[in-house]
Amino acid sequence: MTLYSILYKRTGVKCILSGLSALSVATLLSLSGPVLASEADKKELTIYTYDSFVADWGPGPAIKENFEAQCDCTVNFVAIDDGVGILSRIQLEGENGQADLILGLDTNLTQEAKETGLLAPHGLTVEQLAPVAAALPVAWEDEVFLPFDYGFFAFVYDKDSLTEPPTSLKELVDGPADQKILIQDPRTSTPGLGLMLWVKAVYGDEAPAAWEKLAEKAVTITKGWSEAYGLFLEGEAPMVLSYTTSPAYHMVVDNDERYKAAAFSEGHYMQVEVAARLKNASEPELAQEFLTFMLSPGFQEAIPTGNWMYPVIDLKDSLPAAFETLVDPAVPLQFSPEEVKESRKDWVAEWLQAVAK
């Protein structure tokens, strides 16, 4: 930002500089000088994340305010539609990227992201990661990515329109063709990718046949989660791929217990969302400070009722009571990041061929 644009922003005076006397300019600068110096010197942290994270109702605004109060800096969130899009963005930009941090990939994408060579180790110690080890249902040993929340994929249904929801993934797949669902595309959506892996984890080599049946039930396959969930709320289908935690939003915000997550006997696929620092970050120290801040209450307390996911540190005493009523998967299903990296393209091709029939 130029000196003149800062001056205009601070004073609200729109003028043609050539029409100002030297005295007028000097007077304005004297009035705005200390503020100008402060703003010009303030460091900026640029974070690529997904659009719902930075929405007014998401956790981003509170997290931005809390970290800026700590760092005396400016946090610039750059909204991208999904974690898959964030990965594509850094791959496209390469060494010329503008981000200091990426926030919003999940473990299904981390190995591919690491192999870009663009990311730096997080550098946190075992002691600093102890709260994560105590709260996260799976062990965390990644030296590049840090988790910031986790959840489980589920089919959320409207109990007013669906009185007998399926009790297993196989019951959903083999159920009547007129039991309509809304799902997301695994090529553009992390929930869509999660469902593809969920089906693969349960069906193995029989996954293509299962997808042919699921495709018959899909009203549409959307690019991202927001589109699918919006259609669900509009009544386009009685079930949508979302999270076990989604009903908590309706209970807390809408005071509505109509929406439930169907508990599946085979287990639910687990999603862990993560952040990492870029090697070529313009503000590496500030980026490192933010990674440490991610594991503090100033960040984590915004997750349950902002992102509607589980925090990665123990906040049980401050979680809304609605979280106690949610489906608690007995079996968290997960492929390793390496397995997903090795097979994702083949499995997506397999998915495409099946749903196109």
What keywords describe this structure?
357 residues, alpha/beta, twelve-stranded mixed beta sheet, 15 helices, 41% helix, disordered N terminus
Strand percentage: 15-25%
Mean pLDDT: 89
In one word, what is the shape? Answer: globular
Number of beta-strand segments: 12
User: What is the oligomer described by this structure?
Assistant: single chain
Largest sheet: 12 strands, mixed
Q: Name the structural class.
A: alpha/beta
* SS element count, helices: 15
Helicity level, as a percent range?
Answer: 40-55%
Secondary structure elements and pairings:
Blueprint: H1 3-11, H2 22-41, E1 43-50, H3 51-54, H4 60-71, E2 73-80, H5 83-93, E3 101-106, H6 110-114, E4 119-120, H7 130-135, E5 146-158, H8 169-174, E6 181-184, H9 190-203, H10 207-217, E7 218-222, H11 225-233, E8 239-243, H12 246-253, E9 259-261, E10 268-278, H13 284-293, H14 297-300, E11 310-311, E12 332-333, H15 337-355
Parallel strand pairs: 1-2, 1-3, 6-7, 6-8, 10-12
Antiparallel strand pairs: 3-10, 4-10, 5-8, 5-9, 5-10, 5-11
Structural commentary:
The longest helix is centred in the N-terminal third of the chain and has 20 residues, at 22-41. By secondary structure, this protein is α/β, with parallel strands linked by helices. α1 (3-11) crosses α2 and α10 crosses α15 (337-355). It is built from 15 helices and 12 strands. Strands 1, 2, 3, 4, 5, 6, 7, 8, 9, 10, 11 and 12 form a 12-stranded mixed sheet that branches.
